[in-house]
Amino acid sequence: MISQYLAKITQEWGKQFEQDPSVGLVESLFAHFASHKDTFILIYQSGLWHLNLKMITDACGAKPEQCNRDAYLGAFVAYGLYGWANEWFQRGMPETPSEMAALAKMVKQSPESLHNTEETGTNWK
């Protein structure tokens, strides 16, 4: 039943993201989590967070029809987002979806910049 509900709200998120992809995948996904905060906190606290892995891998993970390179990159992104979201929930979701998207941009541009929070302009706790 929980999986069915997650599938339903994930489909709704997918439709919204397709209508306006300008927001970006990371910000859109974390905004989705934030908009259903109570549901996702309950899932997390119940030890069922792993159910979100399927949602994330379905959305942006590796696909059988992809070439190896694209599949590896998709897996990297999906499991990275899963880990980020897990850590975000564990820490009480203190950053906004926009801040999480900014973190993703930093990683994309220069993973080394993560070690110097002064460069980001974000007050990380």
SSE inventory with pairings:
Blueprint: H1 2-19, H2 25-35, H3 37-45, H4 51-60, H5 68-90, H6 97-109
Q: Work out the count of structural domains.
A: 1
Assign the structural class, choosing from mainly alpha, mainly beta, alpha/beta, alpha+beta, or little secondary structure: mainly alpha
Shape: globular
The end-to-end distance, rounded to whole angstroms, is 36 Å
Q: Compute the number of helices.
A: 6
Largest sheet: number of strands, sense, barrel closure: none
- Gyration radius over CA: 15 Å
The helix/strand order is HHHHHH
Mean pLDDT: 86
Stretches with pLDDT under 50, minimum 5 residues: none
Number of strand elements: 0
What fraction of residues sit in β-strands? Answer: under 5%
Give the helix proportion (percent range). Answer: 55-70%
